[in-house]
Amino acid sequence: MECGTDEAGRGCLAGPVTAAAVILPNSFKNKILNDSKQLSEKNRSFLRPLIEWSSISFGVQHIFEPEIDTINILNASIKAMHGSIEALKMMPEFIIVDGNRFKPYKNIPHQTIIKGDSKFMSIAAASVLAKTYRDEYMEKIHEEFPMYNWKKNKGYPTKEHRAAIKAYGITKYHRKSFRLLPEQYKLDI
């Protein structure tokens, strides 16, 4: 029983960091499934129910802005991955993790794999679930603060998002510990 885990939203200025863990059956095959960043939104939406239905088990965990600001984004990402593994119906015997940083979870052996989301189906599946659950959350909070256009930028540091922060300030969903605007080198006089 091997689970793959990955996160989404680590580089965002607003919203949670979201992780997913997925245990797939050995027989699982899919020609479309890949790192969620390589997939269109349409393909991610198509794959999500397929992954949920086909998986032996999956779990998803959000870690929200106040905690990100308290424990930092790396620790929050790892905590989200641990939470997603905890949400599985059964404990895996081995954990494969996208990236190069992870803290041991309940003495279960693990391996970090750089670009693992493009090499292993279970990590790719976890990346799709993490991204789609996080995007869904950002689309929901967009309704509360439409001027930041989170339904489109999902909280990432786009020019449009930074211009909105400059114009309207920050919200309860912004990460206060992040540099929300570029350094200011001249006075606005």
Give me some keywords for this one.
hydrolase; RNA-DNA hybrid ribonuclease activity; 6 helices; Nucleotidyltransferase, domain 5; RNaseH-like_sf; 189 residues; manganese; alpha/beta; RNase_HII; 5 strands
Write the layout of secondary structure elements.
Blueprint: E1 2-8, E2 17-23, H1 41-54, E3 57-63, H2 65-71, H3 73-86, E4 94-98, E5 110-113, H4 121-142, H5 150-153, H6 159-168
Parallel strand pairs: 1-4, 4-5
Antiparallel strand pairs: 1-2, 2-3
Helix pairs in contact: 1-4, 2-3
InterPro entries: RNase_HII, RNase_HII/HIII, RNase_HII/HIII_dom, RNaseH-like_sf, RNaseH_sf
EC number: 3.1.26.4
Cofactor: Mn(2+); Mg(2+)
What features would you describe in this structure?
With 189 residues, this protein is α/β, with parallel strands linked by helices. The protein has one domain (2-142): Ribonuclease H-like superfamily/Ribonuclease H (Nucleotidyltransferase, domain 5, 2-Layer Sandwich), CATH 3.30.420. The protein is 38% helix and 16% strand. The chain contains six helices and five strands. The protein has helices spanning 41-54, 65-71, 73-86, 121-142, 150-153, 159-168; strands at residues 2-8, 17-23, 57-63, 94-98, 110-113. Strands 3-2-1-4-5 form a five-stranded mixed sheet, sandwiched between helices. α1 packs across α4 (121-142). It is globular. The mean pLDDT is 94. A divalent metal cation binds at residues 6-7, 98.
